[in-house]
Amino acid sequence: MNKKMFNLKINRTFLFLLLIGIFQVIGTACSKKITYPEEAYKPRLDPTRNDSLQRTPFEIIDDFGILGEQDYKLGPGDQLELLVSLRPELTGQYLVGPDGTITVPLAGEIMVEGLTRTVAQQTIKETLLEYYDSLSMTLKILNYANNKVFVLGNVKRPGIVEFRGRRTLLEALSRSDVAIFEGKNLDFARCAIIRGKEQIIWIDINELLNNGNLSLNIDLANNDIIYVPEAMQANIYVMGEVRSPGSYQVKGTMSLLDAINSAGGFSIDAVQSEVKLIRYNGGKDGEVINIDLRDFYRTGNYAQNYLLENNDIVYIPKKGLATITYYLSFINPFAQTIIVSKTLSGQ
């Protein structure tokens, strides 16, 4: 074997071993478990998951605020401005219509309701790219029409409170001129924040406003309802599948059926045979009373038409839910919450 052939063979062997070494390094790197900071996986409250009930009370009140501070979602009435480089036919102002859409040249109607500004911008761009080769654009919000809460009850200026930035309970109460500032019985004053059909949290107004406990100044979500009752006024809450869920004042006596009728009656998806009456019993957990109103209609058993007490919660579940779990707990000495956790049935 001549020297040239010998060197060529050595070079090939070296190259082969080098390639094996490279593949081993790549394989090790790919199979190595990548770890992330624990904070990156900090769970958020999800009322549709039963494991949310395992969270501590302080985590729940924190998550109630976190759900309120999510990015602004577009909705009807918002005034938008679209700036498109070198495309004057697209540049201009757009009003989100009652159906949640804007009308853009060539593309027609584009749904933006429920989207953040950045997601809406990307949605508009992707739609227009069907007609253009490339686009450079910016979407701006000129006027916010869906950054609001409703403050009702014992305030001097009840109604809608609109925000341009962060929505907080303290600002909403202050701008509504809550009457508790001048009232008596401050030790017993609190308000209810109603979020959707399945979340209520009570906050001690005296602790927040007079004692300056800013841990109770939670972030609100768009369309939250803040209800401030009279100091000695009795109220009940009707949630779930009724036409007008919310807080209702008890005048004299109020039965279960009275409360449901006050809330506009059952919705089409209501399960009338599984009505829940949730009553605070002075301990950590509330008492849950199961009521079959269909049986009441059949038998006329008035024992099921309970007389309601102050702060009772009437919850009507929705069809298709296999289990419903209730979590009624003191968040701290000054706040209390109920969260309805649902598990969808497999049917």
Entry summary:
By secondary structure, the chain is an alpha+beta fold.
Structural write-up:
- A seven-stranded mixed β-sheet has the order 7-6-10-8-9-17-16. A five-stranded mixed β-sheet has the order 12-11-15-13-14, with helices on one face.
- 27% of the residues are buried.
- It folds into three domains: 45-70 and 147-231 and 330-347, Outer membrane lipoprotein wza domain like (Outer membrane lipoprotein wza fold like), CATH 3.10.560; 79-143, wza like domain (wza like fold); 234-316, Outer membrane lipoprotein wza fold like, CATH 3.10.560.
- Helix content is 23%, strand content 28%.
- The chain is α+β, with helices and mostly antiparallel strands and 347 residues long.
For the structure shown, list the relevant keywords.
alpha+beta; Outer membrane lipoprotein wza fold like; 3 domains; 5-stranded mixed beta sheet; wza like fold; 7 helices; 347 residues
* pLDDT < 50 runs, ≥5 residues: 25-54
Just give the CATH class of the largest domain. Alpha Beta
Strand content: 25-35%
Outline: globular
Estimated radius of gyration = 29 Å
Distance between the termini: 78 Å
Give a short account of the largest sheet.
7 strands, mixed
According to DSSP, the number of beta strands is 17
- Total count of domains: 3
Order of helices and strands: HHEEEEHEEEHEEHEEEHEEHEEE
Q: Helix segment count?
A: 7
CATH topology of the largest domain: Outer membrane lipoprotein wza fold like
Protein topology:
Layout: H1 3-31, H2 57-68, E1 79-84, E2 92-95, E3 101-104, E4 108-111, H3 117-128, E5 137-143, E6 148-153, E7 159-162, H4 169-175, E8 190-195, E9 199-204, H5 205-209, E10 225-228, E11 235-240, E12 246-249, H6 256-262, E13 275-279, E14 287-291, H7 293-299, E15 313-316, E16 321-332, E17 335-344
Parallel strand pairs: 6-10, 11-15
Antiparallel strand pairs: 1-2, 1-5, 3-4, 6-7, 8-9, 8-10, 9-17, 11-12, 13-14, 13-15, 16-17
